[in-house]
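Researcher: Let's try something more involved. This one mixes different molecule types, so please make sure each is placed in the same coordinate frame as the others.
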Amino acid sequence: DVQMTQSPSNLAASPGESVSINCKASKSISKYLAWYQQKPGKANKLLIYSGSTLQSGTPSRFSGSGSGTDFTLTIRNLEPEDFGLYYCQQHNEYPWTFGGGTKLELK
Amino acid sequence: QVQLKESGPGLVQPSQTLSLTCTVAGFSLTSYNVHWVRQPPGKGLEWMGVIWNTGGTRYNSALKSRLSISKDTSKSQVFLKMNSLQTEDTATYYCAREHYDGTYYSYYFDYWGQGVMVTVSS
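Model: All components are placed in one shared frame. Result:
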């Protein structure tokens, strides 16, 4: 199975700042990485797929980059609604696996 | 609009069988694949299995011996059954729709249910 390692596990930032979350795959997954946002009481939200393609409705302050084994989610000009949990998922091969998550908290 | 909603018992006794239902709206199970994903409290997400639009299934090998996924297309429902539950199966269980653009299936999830918390305890 492809192991997905996210870093950092926790991140504190203030509105208006920019942050980056990293996801590393244990083997090459080409460009096939998705990012999700998780918030209490809400359905998980797909943000980005295929490494850098924004899902319809995802604000342009979100961007994804990377290929092979190393990927990054960047959020510029943080808004209050951006705080929550973020997960990466490789969608290159079975079984589809997720990173351990990054909790983005208000500083 | 697209909706998925999980339902099932909140408490299951050890060694018993878990039965969950995912009721979908806004799309057809004859066109889309639906996956089950779970999340133990305070932990990450684990992909469990999928039922394809064709009715075929594929399971995480770690759960394969205990897991069964089926569907009733006419009722827009997908079912999960997992036997021999243990305390480590305590988790929030999600169903999620796999993205399909009309030509290709993409193995990521564009819509999720809100999840149902299942506690395994006597």
